[in-house]
Structure prediction request, 374 residues.
Amino acid sequence: MLVVLSLAVGTFGGAVAGGAVGYWTAQQTRPTATLASVPVASPVIQPQTTQLRVETNSAIVQSVDKVRPAVVTILNKQKPQTVRSLWGMRTFQPESSGSGVIISRDGYIVTNNHVVEDQASLEVIFANGDKSPARLIGTDPYVDTAVVKVDGTVPGIAEFGDSTSLKPGETVIAIGSALGDFRNTVTVGVISAKGRSLDTGQGYSLEDLLQTDAAINSGNSGGPLLNLLGQVIGINTAVVRGSASSASAPAEGLGFAVPSVTVQNVAENLIKKGYMPRPYLGIRYQTITPEISGANGLPMKWGVYVQGIERGTPAEQAGLREGDIITEIGQGKIGADLSFTNAMLRYKPGDQIKLAVWREGKDITLDVKLGEQR
Prediction:
């Protein structure tokens, strides 16, 4: 089935209710039997099951009440664009919207990178309808995370929970501005899986994502995914839907969130430094695929061809040359499931690793100390 990765960001421009049914077993009685002698079967739904449902519903309501004041809508007025039309060149300024969650009394708000991308100005709408201008602090596209800041008093803050302790089947709650208009929409589901990867189509994948069946719609991007303690255990980022041109049924219940352990680390760095330190090699390269390999008679199906090396970089210091083909970075072999960028993202600036390189028909190994990319 052809599927489409959709970043859940809104652009300007009913649930099915179900009730639990208990069934009783029919009893045939003799005419002489008294009413007291007729056995009455118990309903399928036992008292403890009902009590558990009540407790779960109560936990959901309490979690939403706790976090709702900290959930915001983010309006992104993007940079002006000029296009050619039947009436000549015309300039317009696109606008989009997403969600975010306040994480500190100082007014720092976590959202997605794609919510604030190409921003010219940002505005935040709080849960009570108040508005405030916001400024961008920093972004990290490799985990689709960004931090913006508002000045003044904030109506609430949310706390992070531990996403590493989550298990499939746990109840989770998503809050966000569905379709950009329905602010603070609440949906409920479960953790469907952990450790998922999604190809961004930009040479790298979003990795180690949480998968949930809680409904995530356009405009939900950047909103929190909560546990039943009212803690943020993820930031909603994308959904996968079926293509309208596909003969197969559309995908349902495929939402994804960046885990809180990742978001918290990135947010702290963005607030302190304005950027997320990432490993740096210092090369210009072209990705080798099976098609390119076959056309050029290369012995490997995947790798990166070194087109150029920047001076004074870790690549130059390690002895890399133009024309080299890198096939492995550390313990990661470059392939269909591991791009060059994602292989690099497994390490930190300053790490000493080995590169497996094919050079002029020979396999060699080079030691490199990774630099820091801002």
User: Anything to note?
Assistant: Helices lie at 47-67, 113-116, 260-273, 290-296, 314-318, 340-344. The chain has three domains: 68-80+90-149, 163-261, 278-373. The first helix runs from residue 47 to 67.
